[in-house]
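Dear Dr. L.,

I hope this message finds you well. Following up on our conversation about the binding site, I have prepared a predicted three-dimensional model of the protein together with iron/sulfur cluster. For your records, I am including the exact sequence and ligand specification that went into the calculation, followed by the structure tokens. Please feel free to forward this to your student if that is useful.
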Amino acid sequence: MYLATAHDFEAWRNAARTLLAADVPPDAIHLRDPDDPPTLFANEEALPEAMPGVVAKRVPRDFVEIAEKVACHRDGERWDMLYRILWRLTHGEPHLLDVASDDDVHRLLMMEKAVRRDIHKMHAFVRFRRVETEGVEHFVAWHRPDHRIVRPATPFFARRFPNMRWTILTPDESANWDLSMLTFGPGVPADQAPEADQLEELWKTYYASIFNPARIKLKAMKKEMPVRHWKTLPEAALIPQLLMKAPERVAEMIARQEGSRRSARDYLPGEHDMPSLRAAAASCQGCEIYCNATQTVFGEGPLDARMVLVGEQPGDEEDRQGRPFVGPAGHVLDAALEVAGVDRRRVYVTNVVKHFKYEPRGKRRIHQKPDAREQAACKPWLEAELNLIQPRVLVCLGATAAQALVGRDFRIGERRGEVIETDWCPQTIVTYHPSAILRVPNDEQRNSMRSALIADLSKALSLVDQPSKSGQNHYVQNYDEQS
Ligand code: SF4
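The resulting structure of the complex is given below.
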């Protein structure tokens, strides 16, 4: 058994030429990487001398190209496999590479594919960070490839960034470009890579701008941008947030493209206060819901309210009266507010959608949930209300409000009553919508949901923490006033 080391394609090719010329069959050799432990049963022998007069054998060009790639694979068996295929190609099987079902050929092609893919990933995922050494700007990147691909992968960067001094560090090897020559050095551990700098922010902004929420396929995304590379990708920190907001952005995109490209934004007054907002909303035609509704039901409550309650949309009675939460659901809410000790007159109450969407059924008008496009079209009104009020506590009543203000993947069953920081308020709580309580047929369950609503409103009240001039909490119901 001959034992030889091959650390790269050239070393393997030299060894293979010698072995082939000496007519050494594949099962008489073992070629290994220099850092592989020696095999127990192999006695290392120097490579044999080539037999005199033996002419170098011709091998298909395809094989040489594939072998160059496969040489980068980390599988320690690749050198023996390459020699075995070389032997077969030169010993009666010149068309072996066409036999895709052959075990050796299949394995060869799979390894080549893995290496090509890894090179592609390196081109896509290397992120340079700017460092300065003695006043000279240098760009450094850290990357952990799956295979030993630094040499075939880095000429790409020299072509792409010829006017930048750069270094790419990997655990196997480093590549350095000094504006004229690409050189290779030893590998370095991850902790020697430079710290984050402003390039990261730049890259994040760019990534956020090219991120297309309408094309999210998480599985495909993880395949294209494997999670193991996320640590070195500044933009990867944005992915959870972008994914969370993706459905909302899609809805906004749809809203922009459909519905005659209208939304409430087209009706928003430039400089505005609450009365001008309310007046503008009265003639909003930002989506189709207004067509069948009686009137816009805008929010109501004091402008200095520290607590805002947001529901889904007005109901039948609200549509007739033009005021939020005055129908049966409003009565449930009022009762819960009273038990929780919250004075409704101190609270601003509104909805995500300002017109009543329904389906006529005989004389009745049956509530229909506004779809994502309609919610997105109407959201500018709610945003403007929240911007003017700047509440200390925001209470989302039901899933629609929660998904509009907390995130599309919010689940009431999992996070009801939790205090959450959102873009709209540092203290946001999600609880049941009063109409959901009305819909529950079972007394026990209805009582349990009602208790939860009261508990959540009490919690919201405790967070307001805004004493009035009299020293009382601003929101605590003044029963003397009531009586
Ligand atoms: S539902 Fe909202 S966006 Fe649609 S018309 Fe009414 S106010 Fe305008």
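In brief: The chain is about 40% helix and 15% strand.

With kind regards,
A. P.
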